[in-house]
Write a structure and sequence with these properties.
Largest sheet: 5 strands, mixed
Helix content: 55-70%
Strand content: 15-25%
CATH architecture: 2-Layer Sandwich
Order of helices and strands: HHEEHHEEHE
CATH class: Alpha Beta
Distance between the termini: 64 Å
Number of domains: 1
Strand order of the largest sheet: 1-2-5-4-3
Shape: elongated
Number of helices: 5
Number of strands: 5
Radius of gyration: 21 Å
Length: 188
């Protein structure tokens, strides 16, 4: 490849980047970037909400899955489900706004529709995981899936190795998430 071809490619790339930040595209792209920032913030807050209160409180490990003993309020599971739903509703509303906006480029609409489909699939997988974990004898369970990782919070007075394995198998079967990308948190 000669220098002239490289310069032409760089010039075309520079023009594409420049067009992204000028004229009619500017307003649309600001909306897209802001929407993605809001969604990212909502996912971060949701994920941070499930972070163990004390990271030195790790009770056991199997593979790379973590079992964390936490102490939260009695209404932890109900509050978590409401918070998760609120975060998802906000993200879906932003994405739907992008899809419904006639000024949105077709590529951005496709990206937003894909994100909506991912959220819908995660919601279904989380519900299946929660139902199956409860069917194994746990009193309560909340699952959160985000970006290829999962956190499962179960109400238990002490998880046995076979129970950890059951949860790992359920998460893998329902969501395809490997044990190293799964965090199991025990709530008493």
């Amino acid at each position: 490849m000669d220098i002239k071809n490289v310069k032409n490619k760089l010039s075309k790339t520079g023009e594409k980047i420049k067009s992204w930040f000028t004229g009619e595209n500017l307003k649309r792209n600001i909306i897209v970037v802001a929407s993605l920032g809001i969604i990212g913030g909502a996912v971060y807050l949701n994920w941070n909400y499930f972070k163990p209160a004390d990271s030195d409180n790790v009770a056991a490990q199997q593979g790379n899955s973590e079992l964390v003993d936490t102490e939260y309020a009695e209404s932890y599971f109900a509050m978590t489900e409401v918070s998760r739903q609120r975060t998802r509703d906000e993200a879906l509303e932003v994405l739907q706004t992008i899809v419904d906006n006639e000024a949105t480029a077709q590529e951005d609409r496709a990206t937003a529709l894909n994100a909506i489909n991912v959220i819908a699939a995660n919601i279904q997988s989380e519900g299946n995981i929660e139902s199956l974990v409860v069917s194994k004898g746990f009193e309560d369970c909340v699952a959160v899936i985000s970006e290829g990782n999962a956190t499962v919070v179960v109400k238990s007075d002490g998880l046995l190795e076979n129970e950890i394995t059951q949860i790992q198998e359920i998460v893998y079967t329902e969501a395809g998430i490997l044990p190293e990308n799964l965090k199991i948190i025990e709530k008493q």
